[in-house]
Amino acid sequence: MKVGVLTGGGDCPGLNAVIRAVARRSFVRGHEVVGVREGWRGLVDGKLEPLGNREINGLLPRGGTILGTSRTNPYKIERVEQVLETFAANGLDALVAIGGEDTLGVATRLYAEHGFPVVGVPKTIDNDLSATDYTFGFDTAVFICTEAIDRLHTTAESHNRVMVVEVMGRHTGWIAVMSGIAGGADMILIPEQPVSVEDACKEIQSRHSRGKDFSIVVVSEGYELGGDDDRAADLDEFGHVRLSERGVGHRLAQEIEQRTGFETRVTVLGHVQRGGSPTPRDRILATRYGLKAADLVQEGRFGRMAALHGDAIVDVPLEEATAELKTVPDDWFAVARAFFG
Ligand code: F6P
User: Fold this and answer.
1) CB 145 near ligand 1, within 6 Å
2) What does the alpha-carbon distance between residue 236 and residue 245 come to, in Å, rounded to a whole number?
3) I need a labelling partner for 158 at 20 to 30 A (CA). Which of 48, 181, 232, 322 fits?
4) Which of 125, 127, 167, 177 has most ligand 1 atoms within 8 Å of CB, for mutation?
5) 21 C-alpha to center of ligand 1: Å?
6) How far does residue 165's CA lie from ligand 1's centre (Å)?
């Protein structure tokens, strides 16, 4: 068999660990493994390269993706036929698509409309994919944000300041809630919960009236502040707004300073959250997903995605992963809220 592997969408720690696991298990079975460069763009433009033992050496702890990635959407640019042609012309028998909502959305359609032999692996720091408890990359992002919050605590305390920390997560607040709980945030603002700026400021004020002179506020990039939230709506090929351009952290910091009079600073963590080496948990999850994907290929069970249910690696229909956004449930927010103010 000739097995293709591609990584699409935003990169995240653990992608290389999946590639390694898919390749290692496929080599044992005598299969060839081919890397598709830069996500779906590689199949549109015919950018493929063989992967051997040498290429996958040292991949487990390495961040990013050795295959490169892109947000190319073959449906949007009307190059689906080209994807199918490249796949056939290179003698590929199966494809492992490692990606989030967008990459797996394309895989789902290709499988449904063309019987394309694809299996999926759920990746994203946002953890917003349904049908799996966790995506790899998320734990690393939470670790990075927690460390940043810890560091901001000491400087906030020294200067009696409010520190606003803007984290990623797109339209869900998983990173904000988990790193906020782990870092002891005094307020967390996420898209799923309608806490207004006014109420957030009241909490901060009541905390300060109890003798605390500093506060840590974690805000998710997708939190709706109101007003001109959607200005600068630059869209990618999947129609997503670049949320970082809305500058929610800076706007929130201004509001807090104006409403409370407390000196406020903002830190936007940005792509630091996606960089560097994966945590042990993400390395292990990515490895288990990679092995599962290789097994699904071996069994010819296409249109499926590796998923984590509890502590078990299972497989689910690809379309379930992208059917709806997995938002932060109220009970998780309640854990965070117990420490507000
Ligand atoms: O989906 C992962 C993610 O990092 C989001 O959290 C963020 O909104 C987006 O990608 C940023 O995309 P880009 O890397 O294109 O700036």
Assistant:
1) no
2) 13
3) 181
4) 125
5) 25
6) 16
CA of 317 to the centre of ligand 1 (A): 25
Q: Is the CB of 168 under 6 A from ligand 1?
A: yes
DSSP H helices in 46-137 = 53-56, 80-89, 101-114
* CB neighbour class for 34 (10 Å; exposed up to 12, middle 13-18, buried from 19): buried
How remote is the CA of residue 272 from the centroid of ligand 1, in Å? Answer: 11
Full-model pTM: 0.97
Atom of ligand 1 nearest to the CA of 170: 8
45 is catalytic: no
Could you report the per-residue pLDDT of 200-224, keeping only the tens digit for each? 999 999 999 999 999 999 999 999 9
> Which phi and psi (to 5°) does residue 212 adopt?
-85, 135
Closest by CA to 204, choosing from 182, 223, 220, 188, is 188
- Using CA positions, which residue lies closest to atom 13 of ligand 1? 10
Q: What is the pLDDT of residues 52-106, one digit of tens each?
A: 999 999 999 999 999 999 999 999 999 999 999 999 999 999 999 999 999 999 9
Cα 105 to chain centroid distance, Å, stands at 15
- 299-323: per-residue pLDDT in tens? 999 999 999 999 999 999 999 988 9
Measured from the Cα of 169, ligand 1's closest atom is: 6
In the predicted model, what is the mean pLDDT of the chain?
96
pLDDT at 338 over 80: yes
Two tokens, residue 252: 């929130």
Residue in 11, 102, 126, 186 annotated catalytic? 126
**Could you write out the DSSP letters of every residue in 284-300?**
HHHHHHHHHHHHHHHTT
